[in-house]
Predict the structure.
Amino acid sequence: MSNGELSDANLDFEKQDSEVHEEKTDCEIEKPSLSKSRVLLLNVSWFGLNAMYLVLSIEVFPSQVHALVGSEDKGQVLGAMIALGAVVTFFVSPLIGMKSDRLVFKYGRRRPFMIAGMGLLVIALFGMAFSAPYVENEKDNSTCSIGLEIKRCLPYLNLTVLEEEERNNSADVDVLLNILSQKDTEGNVVMYVIFYTMVMACYALVSVPYNGLIADLTPPLQRGLSSGVMGAMTLAGNITGAAIGLFFFRLGVVGIYSLVCLIFVVCVLITVLCSHETPLTEEPESLGFKGIFLAYWEPLKDADFRWVFLTRFLMQQGVATVTGFLEFWLNDMVSLPHCWSPERSVAIILLPLLLAAAGVSIIAGFLSDALQRRKPLVTGSAILMSICALIFACLKGKYAFYASIPVAVAFGVGFGAYCAIDFALVMDVLPKDKDKAKDLAVWHQALVLPQAIATPIGGIILDVFERYDCHMGLGYIILFTVTSFYFALSGIFVIKIKKAK
């Protein structure tokens, strides 16, 4: 070999070595450890996001929809609205993630999106508030003295028979027919739904880059801690949202929106101002339409990522089913003490559940980092939630409410442990470090899709089997049994993940 050829070969080798080194630097550069206070400040926005979302989605949105369309259509309109929002989020989130991964800006590639999303989200929320500004005042539970079997079977009986019984002085049927005939419409339902879809798109504009920011700044050895703090902030936000909901009728619609927006804005600003990003110096290769379409599915080519996606999807299917139908279950299957309303009873059950979950999430995060093992904790928590769902399927009648509280606490223990480790698990298996926000946005669909799928599936199960045998509450028995299978499969499939221990 001549000297010229040898020189060219050396140059080629040095170039290849440089490219490998650059690729390794991009993906494996060691991140500095974060203090516990920095981890807390980095994750504090989850508190604001979840405090806002829980009180609005569980109490305010249903009340506004009821005021807009009345009792007869409120379930269909609310379900369709939530499904539409989930579809919008499904398509918007990966696009936001890809743009965030490629943004060249002196303030970083995540925080500018969070600030823009924060401002637009507040505008859209106030649009929802003023589209339906009036709701009914809190009422006593007028159906508490009526037999559970009559309440369960009412939708599946012939109305002419009910009217005949009403003429025969059946007090129970008379009360129920009056309730069903109530209709109180206020506001503009079309504008309300439009603003809701804007809220969901803007929520993604904040949360998707936020996931990327946490993944960018968290070193591998602190992923369990960060995931645990995230879980605790999420659950603490849920508890705060539930507490705020107690003052809904005192504050009014605009007042409750103003309060949750204030909490949300403060939390996001704390995270943005206390986080330091290293901005990109060169804009990555742009993607055409085909590239954008393929990017949706690219992370799912990785087997471990597919299993993480599937396990989270199944877990969220179960959670969405429980939260979506718990209030109905209390109303139809449980004799509530002291003539409480189902809404109040749900809050009383959720409070110990969320408190248990918040406490366990921090412990589980530390434990997963100390043991460097995540799969046993995730599987154990999912199986515990599966058992609790089966117990809910068997509970009904006079003492079911009191029995459901310790079951809810056990469910919260499992849910808290799962929330603490879930995000650490997905960070362990991300296919490409440079596409973190986009890949996390794809994973985020496992949280979004069940919002559009779980409630319709649960509604079909409930309606079909209650129609078959409403006297024993067969619909609820099958519904919670199916939910138990969701949780069990979620825990079992975690074993298939190879990159995580």
